[in-house]
């Protein structure tokens, strides 16, 4: 079975638009900017044998604020720049009550089926409580990236960091230490 690191997209790999302490996804390709260390972190994780999979809520699609085509352009750019292995996307708004929208673990469970992933030995890195809940709900180890949004912080994460680089280094250290203790 494969090991994976699931990454939220906005606020983890690319800049979100923050207004009044709340983060919003970019709505145009020209506003889609990768964060520092995003490319290097994905490379490091892949080099250490992880599949790197994005799991992202994009409710602006079904809310009519961005087209699926525009989001797909962003994802093409993301795949080209970072060499991630796959992207799972939920276009649903909160009131649609789908099974894929985080905090539900649907996207992670679908990815696990598709890629034969061992969820209990995999990680999720996210910047919101819904990411952490989805990860723990799927049985993953959860890492919270604190971006200081004005919203409730998660409590079930294994660790909290302030950059994807620090989170990546922690994950690699966990796997390296586990391999040496066998």
* Average residue pLDDT: 95
Q: How many beta-strand runs? A: 8
Q: How far do the termini sit from each other?
A: 18 Å
Point out poorly predicted stretches. Answer: none
Order of strands across the main sheet: 5-4-1-6-7-8
Strand content: 15-25%
Summary of the model, kept short:
The protein is of the alpha/beta class.
Describe the 3D structure.
The chain is an alpha/beta fold and 182 residues long. It has five helices and eight strands, in the order E-E-E-H-E-H-E-H-E-H-E-E-H. Helix 1 (38-47) packs parallel to helix 5 (164-180). The protein is globular and about 45 Å long.
Note the main attributes of this structure.
182 residues, alpha/beta, two-stranded antiparallel ribbon, 5 helices
Helices and strands in order:
Elements lengths: L2 E5 L9 E3 L2 E3 L13 H10 L2 E8 L10 H15 L3 E5 L15 H10 L7 E4 L2 H10 L2 E5 L13 E3 L2 H17 L2
Helix pairs in contact: 1-5
